[in-house]
Design goal:
heterodimer, A: alpha+beta, four-stranded antiparallel beta sheet, 5 helices, 4 strands, about 45% helix, B: alpha/beta, five-stranded mixed beta sheet, 13 strands, about 30% strand, globular
Chain lengths: ~180, ~270
């Protein structure tokens, strides 16, 4: 017959333990006895897992494709003139065109017509050839170039009025130098 | 009091006294009666005073204590679960309604516990709230652990559940009262208690069982199994018997008082 589960005692751990059949305590030595081989077997399992991991790592190293040997590049000896030319070319290639163009676009108003840009990467200078309607526009342009942070110096090299042109524009050349990047 | 492995205390509480019994759950030795205390449980502070006197020579600090409540202190009734009951609250509500219907008042001052079953009628029991509170307070005062509080009849049902046979009725004789659990097959149909008149013999028992079967609405049992201090004459004897009657406790008259027998009810025999 099944047990009648009527109990007014407050629930708790002690009540649960009390309801556990007391004769289960006689199974405690058997449980402990089973724990010993279980512990030994667990330790062996962990050791074997470690050995397996090591073996797999060794196998992976052994079966990996041999490293590709890169042939050493032959050493090329260059003459000083060639070195200078290469450096100049590299310097020219490394010219910061994007920043230079942005600085010029900011500084050049619509009244100034740019005719030529001659950069010199070695000296970090840029020679600007341009035309203005009059000297006031030219001087304003030079002032704006000097206000650009990107340029460290702005020098007016020469200027002349183009007599043969009916509009008589003022052609001038400015040399600007930019700072180290 | 020194605690040994497997020992536990059983406290019997009746309306006229208390009893303390020590048992060994581990090795199944005979229960030992430690103390008895006569009192009127319904007097003010009777439980606390009586327990203090009971524990005077047997301090229960650290012990686990099982409490057996005499059947006159509690109420037992059968509850039919509502159809399509889906929640525990449905069963609790049905038990409370049945309590009010049977005993005429809502169970506000009672604590209801039951052998909850949503599919079949189940046995429910109610114990006075102040009695349980008093026990909890005593546990805190005397520092013992309350692990089990059961009505005596429920404790007896569980104690003898392995000896009980399917279809047989179960009964308990205690303090001149016969409590019967009427079964229909394996289903408990009702629990009924009746005082035993003086000189009640086997004929009275047969007539009583027949009356109870009619009241409950089940057939008369083929076997009745009785625990407690049942008269030996009720046991089966060859001849004109309408049902077999087994006395589960052959040594019922072993000199233990009713209080002591109450406390040991439910302990391994």
């Amino acid at each position: 017959m099944k047990r009648t589960r009527i109990d007014f005692a407050p629930p708790g751990l002690r009540r649960t333990l009390f309801r556990t059949p007391p004769r289960l305590i006689f199974m405690l030595p058997a449980v402990l006895a089973m724990c010993v081989p279980a512990g030994v077997m667990t330790q062996r399992y962990v050791e074997q897992q470690q050995e397996l991991t090591d073996l797999q790592a060794a196998l992976a190293v052994r079966s990996a494709p041999p490293p590709v040997l890169v042939a050493a590049a032959p050493k090329v000896t260059l003459a000083p003139a060639q070195v200078t030319a290469v450096n100049a070319a590299v310097g020219q290639l490394n010219l910061p065109w994007r920043d230079l163009a942005a600085a010029l676009a900011d500084a050049t108003p619509a009244s100034i017509a740019l005719l030529a840009l001659e950069p010199d990467a070695k000296r970090r200078t840029l020679r600007i050839s341009a035309e203005a309607k009059n000297s006031d526009d030219m001087l304003a342009y030079i002032t704006r170039l000097q206000a650009e942070e990107w340029f460290t110096s702005v020098v007016l090299m020469r200027h002349e009025v183009m007599q043969e042109d009916p509009n008589r524009p003022l052609r001038f050349q400015v040399s600007v130098q930019w700072g180290t990047p | 009091m020194r605690k040994l492995l497997g020992h536990t205390l059983r406290l019997g509480i009746a309306s006229d006294g208390l009893a303390l019994v020590r048992i060994n759950r581990l090795f199944g030795r005979a229960p030992v009666l430690l103390a008895e205390q006569r009192l009127d449980l319904f007097a003010p502070d009777a439980l606390a005073t009586g327990l203090s006197a009971l524990f005077a020579d047997h301090a229960p600090g650290g012990w686990t204590v099982s409490v057996v409540l005499a059947d006159e202190l509690i109420r037992l009734w059968q509850v039919t679960p509502p159809q399509e009951a889906t929640r525990m609250g449905d069963l609790e509500g049905a038990a409370a309604l049945r309590f009010q219907h049977l005993f005429g008042s809502p169970p506000a001052e009672w604590v209801i516990r039951a052998d909850w079953d949503a599919a079949r009628p189940f046995l429910a029991s109610a114990a006075p709230l102040n009695l349980l509170d008093g026990l909890q307070l005593a546990a805190e005062t005397h520092r013992f652990h309350l692990v089990d509080i059961r009505p005596q009849f429920v404790a007896a049902l569980n104690q003898w559940r392995q000896a009980r046979r399917a279809g047989a009725w179960f009964g308990q004789v205690h303090g001149g009262v016969l409590s019967l659990a009427a079964y229909d097959g394996a289903v408990l149909m009702a629990v009924r208690s009746s005082p035993i008149p003086a000189g009640a013999d086997r004929d009275w028992l047969e007539a009583h069982v027949a009356r109870e079967a009619l009241r409950v609405g089940v057939g008369r049992p083929e076997r009745l199994q009785l625990c407690g201090a049942a008269p030996a004459a009720w046991g089966s004897s060859p001849g004109r018997l309408k049902f077999a009657c087994s006395l589960l406790e052959q040594n019922a008259g072993d000199g233990w008082s009713d209080l002591a027998r109450l406390a040991r009810t439910g302990a391994p025999a």
